[in-house]
Amino acid sequence: MKTIKLGFIASLMLLLVASCSSEDDNEKDLQKPTISLNYDAGFPKACEVLTKGETYHFKAQVTDNLELAAYSIDIHNNFDHHTHDDQEATCDLGTIKDPVNPFIFIENYSIDQGLTSYEINVSITIPNTIDTGDYHCSFSVTDVTGWQSVTSMDIKIVE
Fold it and tell me: Which of 3, 77, 97, 108 has its CA 20 to 30 A from that of 151?
């Protein structure tokens, strides 16, 4: 019985040592993916004005050192002038107001396996029935290990 316990304990310790020492520090992903709208086709830029009823191609370049997994686009009202922008531009905001029929667009998309670079290209039509005014547009990207980056900018929707 003592031999079985010692054998079990030795096996458990060997398993513990093997699981702790098997990952090489060079294999850890320590980098977040990147998002860029700072190229000719990138859209929208900060302070961009969009018109109700029009269709726009929302484009951003995303990259990762290992592998990309997914991205999302989030457009929501900024009628209360909250902020989470990381863009350098300061946009002229309208008056603070309560939303009546705000535009809300939140969609998630997967990226084909094995890609380290990808151009987001999503067509979005701005409905005719929504409130005009100040909005935020956010892009987020996640890599295969779970790192995420987000970039947001002020946009305005007009008649």
Answer: 97
- What tens digit of pLDDT does each residue of 47-83 get? 999 999 999 999 999 999 999 999 999 999 999 999 8
pTM reported for the whole predicted model: 0.81
**Could you tell me if 120 and 56 are in contact, meaning their C-beta atoms sit under 8 angstroms apart?**
no
CATH architecture of 29-158: Sandwich (2.60)
Task: Please tell me the total number of residues recorded for the chain in this structure.
Answer: 159
Torsion of CA 129, 48, 73, 126, to 10 degrees: 20
Residue 43: DSSP 8-state:
B
Contact in structure between 67 and 143 (CB atoms under 8 Å): yes
**Cα 151–105–60 angle (5° rounding)?**
35
Of 147, 145, 111, 149, nearest in space to 27 by CA:
145
In this predicted model, what pLDDT tens digit does every residue of 4-19 receive, in sequence order?
Answer: 444 444 443 434 444 4
* Cα–Cα distances in angstroms (integers) from residue 50 to residues 32, 56, 132, 157, 158, in the given order: 30, 8, 10, 5, 6
